[in-house]
Write a structure and sequence with these properties.
Blueprint: H1 6-10, H2 16-43, H3 48-65, E1 73-74, H4 80-111, H5 115-118, H6 123-140, H7 142-146, H8 157-166, H9 173-192, H10 198-216, H11 225-228, H12 245-277, H13 283-296, E2 306-307, H14 309-317, H15 323-340, H16 349-364, H17 366-372, H18 377-393, H19 395-417, E3 419-423, E4 426-428, E5 441-443, E6 448-454, H20 459-472, E7 478-485, H21 491-506, E8 510-514, H22 518-527, H23 529-533, E9 538-539, H24 542-555
Parallel strand pairs: 6-7, 7-8, 8-9
Antiparallel strand pairs: 1-2, 3-6, 4-5
Helix pairs in contact: 2-3, 2-14, 2-15, 2-16, 3-13, 3-15, 4-12, 4-13, 6-16, 6-17, 6-18, 6-19, 9-10, 9-16, 12-13, 12-14, 12-19, 18-19, 20-21
Length: 556
């Protein structure tokens, strides 16, 4: 395995000028990551400092070992739904175990060089569950955004809205104004400055306003982080969870979802960054780094982490071009946690909810979703199914069924594109050339038929070929199977070919193969088909096959 962290590549020609750029970018990204790490931690059902621990530890490891120059790692909105569900059902220990298992899976993906394969997950699946996660995040923030007085909010999407409807009269106007004000500040800030993040301005400004309202005017109805959590502004202590076989079995589906989600988001973020910087990331190295981060972080109380597109782009836009910027971002967050962590207790929950509403909006990709609805019916089916399953049921189920549905529809398209043609009188002479329309025709000897397969000969097509043979029911003296346009075969195709050879021997029909490429020919040799059929009956082209068929017919 070629494990090559980008940090060690970039340090070979590192300069003082680049360090100053990375320092500035790292400080800015660290400040940007602060409110997000706190908000993601709380929304995921854990404490605010656990979100910060994740941003510090995972952010450092991903930058130190990662395969991208500019990737910024940490907790992200994509994990909120799955993490919250695990915490509610299995507790913090269950979350730690699931995250460690996911980390092991990510390392295995990297070692098996699956980095390039992950990129081929169908786009409608990615958009479907991303939009579904955004909708779910938005639904989870309504209580804090409006200041509703609700003891317990259901985990499921539809019952959640039923509870909101029943408690609409308990909305706190002051909290609602803080939430809406935060959304407006975050939305309007980019019009005035792109250097200072709107989320930071909103949190600082709203925290000061709420502090004044609570201390001077007695508005105690506005809930803050300190009302709900006890902030531990200190270094985390290591505590490895005890892992049992039963826990691994139970948490395996959730861990698989974390691993797939982490792989997709991190590689998508790295790919977007490559498009801006002109660099090329090492996808398998990146997966290994993500895996290591997700094994170590939960031991220190953290939650799942991956590459964060928004923070990565902030890093790039502020001059960060090496992993040093990501390491500095982690150090900045650690210093804020140690020296200013106690001040976070004054941040209003409605403001954090406003931050997450904006995160959900940016994640929703509603324009892309709308455009995909105008596409092919199969893509629309995958998109809508993944979206609805994510929102109504569970992210794990959504990813599994979405991928399965996309795979089935893909195989259907491939099988439909593979054609089986039958020739009984003449056949074109020319071997396959793209755009060939005026091929010379060859006359077939009496008792010879040619069957041509155009496309992959895999399990979806093999049965189609077998059905075609059965429907014909005729028994020619020689049957030539022309395979010049077959790029590959699978075990089902081999099995059907073996069955055809056996049946043909009973009917005293000779089988010849024509135009077999090198890859398919090697498979025929390894599977024993060549030995069963006879090497002399596998010909390079149609002319040679017809010549042998003619001789065999005359001998008969």
């Amino acid at each position: 395995m070629h494990f090559q962290p980008k940090l060690f590549e970039t340090l070979r020609n590192y300069s003082k000028a680049q360090f100053y750029k990375d320092l500035m970018a790292g400080v800015i990204v660290g400040i940007v990551a602060l409110p997000l790490a706190i908000a993601f931690g709380i929304a995921s059902g854990v404490s605010p400092e656990q979100g910060l621990y994740t941003a510090v530890i995972a952010g450092f490891i991903i930058s130190f070992l990662g395969g991208s120059r500019v990737q910024i790692g940490g907790p992200t909105g994509a994990f909120i739904v799955i993490v919250y569900g695990i915490v509610q059902e299995f507790g913090i220990t269950g979350l730690a175990v699931a995250t460690i298992i996911a980390g092991i899976m990510l390392i295995a993906m990297g070692l098996l060089r699956l980095g390039s394969v992950i990129k081929f997950i169908p786009y409608p699946v990615v958009v479907g569950f991303t939009s579904g996660i955004a909708m779910t995040i938005f639904a989870t923030q309504i209580k804090d955004l409006t200041g509703m007085n609700i003891d317990s909010v259901p985990a499921d999407f539809i019952p959640k809205w039923g509870v909101y409807a029943q408690n609409i009269s308990s909305i706190d106007p002051a909290s609602l104004l803080i939430g809406i004000g935060s959304i407006l500040i975050i939305s309007l800030t980019p019009r005035f400055t792109k250097k200072i993040p709107g989320s930071l301005i909103a949190i600082v400004l709203m925290t000061l306003i709420v502090y004044f309202l609570r201390e001077k005017l007695g508005f105690t109805s506005i809930e803050t982080i300190g009302d709900r959590f006890s902030i531990n502004a200190s270094l985390p202590t290591a505590s490895a969870p005890s892992i049992t076989f039963d826990m691994v079995q139970t948490l395996m589906p959730a861990a698989f979802t974390i691993a797939i989600l982490g792989a997709i988001e991190s590689l998508l973020s790295a790919t977007v960054a490559d498009g801006v910087t002109g660099d090329r990331h090492h996808s398998n190295t990146e997966l290994i780094a993500q895996g290591v981060a997700n094994i170590i972080t939960p031991i220190f109380g953290g939650i799942p982490a991956t590459g964060a597109i928004a923070r990565t782009m902030t890093n790039i836009n502020n001059g960060g071009r090496t992993p040093v910027a990501g390491i500095i971002h982690a150090v900045v967050l650690l210093l804020i946690l140690l020296f200013l962590g106690d001040l976070t207790k004054h941040i209003p929950m409605a403001c954090l909810a406003g931050v997450l509403v904006i995160v959900a909006y940016n994640m929703s990709e509603w324009r892309t979703f709308k455009n995909l609805l105008k596409g092919q019916k199969s893509d629309v089916a995958v998109l809508v199914a993944t979206f609805l399953l994510t929102v109504i049921f569970d992210l794990t189920i959504a990813i599994e069924i979405g991928l399965l549905l996309a795979l089935v529809l893909f195989l259907r398209r491939i099988s439909e594109s593979t054609q089986i043609s039958i020739f009984k009188h003449d056949v074109d002479k020319q071997e396959y050339i793209e755009g060939n329309t005026e091929a010379e025709r060859l006359t077939l000897p009496k008792g010879v038929e040619v069957y041509e397969i155009e496309g992959p000969f895999f399990f979806g097509v093999a049965n189609k070929f077998e059905e075609t043979m059965k429907q014909l029911g005729d028994k020619p003296k020689v049957r030539i199977i022309r395979m010049r346009k077959v790029p590959f075969m699978d075990s089902t195709g081999i099995r059907n070919l073996e069955s055809l050879i056996k049946l043909s021997k009973k009917d005293k029909t000779l089988i010849l193969l024509s135009g077999v490429n090198e890859q398919v020919g090697e498979l025929l040799r390894k599977s024993g088909v060549e030995e069963d059929l006879g090497a002399e009956n596998i010909l390079h082209n149609i002319e040679a096959a017809l010549e042998r068929a003619s001789k065999l017919c005359s001998k008969k």
